[in-house]
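## Example pair
The file below holds two records. Each record gives the amino-acid sequence first, followed by its structure token line.
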Amino acid sequence: MGYMLKKNVAEILRAKYKNGYIASIVGLSDAYVSLIFHRKRTIPKRLAYSFTKAINSEAEINDYFEIVR
């Protein structure tokens, strides 16, 4: 089980944030963040949590991600 960004959220985040900004906060490479933004990669729950809190500290995982089996 993994998490993938919702399609509409991915488009908004790509327009609003640069890969390097999210990568530096979460501790990932720019390329990995790009794969997440373009919905090419699923991620585990703990990384989805970190990603969500880097974007908005008040948001929940379900606001940005959908569960993929």
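Second record, same layout:
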Amino acid sequence: MGKLNIHEIWDRVGATVGGFVYRKTPFFGESLEALPLRDVVGKTSAEVEDIKPGNWKTVKARGPAGVFSCSYLVYRWIWSELPTLIYIHGSGESPANFGRFSDNSFNKIFTRDFPLDINLVLIRAPFHEGSQAEYIKALGKLNNYVGMLASSVAVLDSLARHFREEGCSEVLGAGFSLGGWVLNLHRAFIGEGIDRYIPICAGTRPEEVFISSHYRKLVGEKARDNPEVLKNVLNFEKEFKSNPKQDCFPLLFQYDLLTEMKTQAPAFGGMDLKVLKKGHFAGQQAINEMREHIIFSINR
């Protein structure tokens, strides 16, 4: 093994600390029972009711994985005929906390120094209304992870359809980490209603995050010992690659030891993949670069 750079060291330390802190509530440590994403995403539905700005709206998503509660916020609504960007946050963030030091990537990217006159909407995934510990505990069940992803896709799709009916010139999707998985799932299993997908730090093999990356330190022993179960439930690379549209503008981090280039980049063959020379935790703080990538992708 070659010499690690500072980005990879930070990722190793972060995964080790997380594995210790949440050692009693590991991912998927409670149950591995879950239907595959390919059997859940297209059969999960949600219906949004209004687009009044300024207040969080709760919406229930229903599907084979169960009923899950999501929320969305129309943060800025200028005019119905303008492009509308729907953003999905990262795993474990606090999307409703707009404090200066909050873990809220939407707040950092869009509420300051974002120059485009577009409508902005934020989706809050299930299990992100409480604490980080509550979120980790919920993901003790693989079914909750599947349901969280599928429900977020359903809300994203419902919002996209709603905005098209409102006359929006374009509907755009952007998301970091968890949000990126949601976007890629929508493209793989629905593939219409969104003009441009901008996934950051995500690919089509989420199982590899829990099987082969340093994040496996946060995963339950039974799940680590049954990688074929996680692959069957979570992998959607084939479906994503079967979509021939040139509508995806991904961003990955070269030294990321959690969402690794070697496992996630192959799905983006033939696409305009951008790469930052960052690791996972350093990449999370690369707000200017992420903002620039989103703006560049919108203006293409």
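Notes on the second record: The chain has 13 helices and eight strands. The chain has a mean pLDDT of 93.
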